[in-house]
Write a structure and sequence with these properties.
This protein is an alpha+beta fold. 41% of the residues lie in helices and 19% in strands. The strands form two sheets. Strands 1, 2, 5, 6, 7 and 8 form a six-stranded antiparallel sheet that branches. It comes from uncultured Solirubrobacteraceae bacterium.
């Protein structure tokens, strides 16, 4: 809904490339994107430090959730995320990872690190795919996985997976918009990227974000956050 509204409001035509945050940021560094919407803080900061990015603004947030089979073989329901990951590893319960250098994959790996676990073995499978495909595989294998709440709620294949762990600053999922400077490459449309970065934090765009998903899923999939910092959002989580 955001892209058509932006095109109508600002007169641009947008080519959207849907990839994980890691790939999106790499595209920005190579000058293959005019603007990036990402949710991988460390990778985003590396892009900012590279000298080819303009501004970085908070757009919205949702959260990550741990989902798994109703039977909950590792007994993680209601636990904190790090404790849940420890239990999954201790019991060698099946876990499916995106393994695609996305923002979700980066968060998952940080949780394993915090849990003191190096995930490897037959119980741990990397799909190298997006969130939707990973949820489908997790459901088929009756495995746990880490997902963003929006994709979990909107993916029909995830209905066989139960929500096990959610809430808290540790599972916060903040999205930033980063416009790319023309110095990244001659193909960069700096004016267009800047226009989208400014528009997506405007009141009109934020209203669209704040209502997205309500009609179909009974709740908004994202919380609009223009003008706020990630630290402020985390303090309220």
């Amino acid at each position: 809904e955001l892209v058509p509204a932006f095109e109508e409001a600002e007169g641009y035509t947008v080519k959207t490339v849907a990839v994980g945050s890691g790939q999106a940021i790499e595209m920005g560094e190579r000058g293959e994107a005019d603007v990036v919407l990402a949710h991988s803080p460390e990778a985003e900061q590396e892009l900012m430090d590279s000298g080819v990015a303009g501004s970085r603004k908070v757009v919205m947030h949702n959260d990550f959730v741990v989902v798994g089979p109703e039977s909950d073989p590792a007994k993680v329901e209601g636990e904190k995320a790090v404790d849940a990951f420890k239990r999954i590893a201790e019991r060698l319960a099946p876990f499916v990872s995106r393994g695609d250098e996305s923002g979700t994959n980066a968060k998952e790996l940080s949780l394993w690190e915090d849990a003191g676990v190096q995930p490897r073995g037959t119980w741990y499978q990397e799909t190298g795919s997006g969130m939707g495909a990973t949820l489908t595989i997790a459901a088929e294998k009756e495995a746990y996985t880490l997902a963003d709440r929006g994709t979990y709620l909107s993916n029909p294949q995830a209905r066989d997976l139960a929500l096990m762990v959610d809430g808290g600053a540790g599972l916060l999922n903040v999205y930033h918009v980063i416009d790319i400077d023309a110095k990244a490459g001659e193909r960069v449309n700096e004016a267009g990227g800047d226009a989208f970065a400014r528009w997506v934090v405007s009141p009109d765009a934020q209203r669209i974000i704040g209502s997205f998903g309500e009609e179909e899923y009974g709740e908004a999939l994202f919380t609009p956050d223009a003008g706020r910092s990630a630290a402020e959002i985390a303090a309220e989580a």
